[in-house]
Write a structure and sequence with these properties.
transmembrane; 2% strand; Cytochrome D ubiquinol oxidase subunit II; mainly alpha; cell membrane; two-stranded antiparallel ribbon; oxidoreductase activity, acting on diphenols and related substances as donors, oxygen as acceptor; 13 helices; 341 residues; 2 strands
């Protein structure tokens, strides 16, 4: 049952990165779009993510619940020593959702619309930035459970060059996913070519940021290179991600939108797999060299069994409903000459 819970945890993190990340990326794309193209970008983005954007946060909720119930030691450590970036990330989610709603459904159209737009795009940038910072801090070895000062306990674990680099890499990944997903939603050839260009730009940014992450990790003594390339499975995943990237660039101008989305999702999946497979089951690296393990620091056996059963039963009801929601809006959009991501 423990491995069932771990699989659900990894899948929830991956799906939040793929689906929620694409939603955040839509705001990032808008942030880096010229004023002349912002209106058409907003229309395309809203048509794509408007119907289902709230559902994507389900994966974050599932992740939190699994950690809280199944791995209380890991949950308490992260929520204590990383409470500042966690709060900033959650505030970003709230601000983004509020701005997204009000800028489309506000009864009065006035100067507040511009404020809503700014809140939306900047919170879309800040939220994945701190999501990446939190992810980087779990493996940076900077969390010190014996810290005696506020700075060393609650600032240094996440406010360092490695975590910030991982944050920017996450932002670039989200922008890349959104651009690829939105190619098929463009209402005109000009918009389609704009999203293709954005996909290339974000992909280049992700490659550069990823390289910076490895350089900083090496400089700070974080064995990221060994974790990624030292494991045969990790190396195979990196090779697969690279090959899919080459194929994706080749197909960008071919109009094969479904294949492009699959390739983008596959590439991100392989990157996440390569970054985590070698140090599994260790999920948090502490400053004293110890680890918090998904196997050794799990909750009570009965709690794990009940959690696994709840996840399995919940999937029977939640997943079909989610797929039907997406299908319904796809069918509705297709009838009006457009689709959703």
């Amino acid at each position: 049952m423990l491995y069932v819970v771990i699989v659900y945890l990894w899948a929830a993190i991956l799906l939040y990165l793929l689906l929620g990340g694409a939603d955040f990326g839509a705001g990032i794309i808008e942030l880096f779009t010229s004023p002349a193209n912002k209106k058409s970008t907003r229309k395309t983005m809203y048509r794509a993510i408007g119907p289902v954007w709230e559902a994507n946060h389900m994966w974050l909720i599932i992740t939190i619940v699994i950690l809280f119930v199944g791995f209380p030691a890991i949950y308490s450590t992260m929520s204590l020593y990383l409470h500042i970036p966690l709060v900033i990330m959650l505030l970003g989610i709230i601000a983004r959702g509020t701005a997204f709603t009000f800028r489309h459904y506000d009864a009065v159209v006035d100067d507040m619309q511009e404020i809503y737009n700014k809140i939306f795009v900047y919170s879309s940038f800040v939220t994945p930035l701190f999501l990446g910072i939190i992810a980087g801090s779990t493996v940076s070895g900077q969390i010190d459970t014996q810290a005696s000062t506020f700075l060393s306990a609650y600032i240094q674990p996440w406010f360092n060059w490695f975590c910030i680099a991982v944050g920017f890499f996450t932002v670039a990944i989200c922008g890349f996913l959104a651009a690829v997903y939105l190619i098929g939603e463009a209402g005109s050839e000009a918009d389609r070519r704009m999203f293709i260009r954005k996909a290339r730009q974000m992909n280049i940014a992700a490659v550069i940021c990823g390289g910076i992450v490895f350089v900083i990790a090496y400089a700070q003594g974080i064995p990221l290179i060994r974790w990624t390339f030292g494991n045969p499975l990790g190396l195979a995943a990196i090779i697969a991600a690279t090959l899919s990237l080459v194929l994706l660039w080749y197909l960008l101008n071919k109009g094969k939108t479904k294949i492009l989305r699959i390739l983008a999702g596959f590439q991100v999946t392989m990157i996440l797999f390569a970054a985590t497979v070698d140090h599994f089951p260790n999920i948090v690296v502490l400053k004293n060299g110890e680890y918090l393990s998904l196997l050794e620091h799990s909750g009570h056996e009965k709690a794990i069994s009940v959690l696994a059963l709840a996840l399995l039963l919940g999937s029977i009801f939640i997943l079909p409903a989610l797929f039907y929601l997406i299908y319904s809006f796809q069918k509705k959009s297709s009838a009006s000459g457009s689709g959703i991501a």
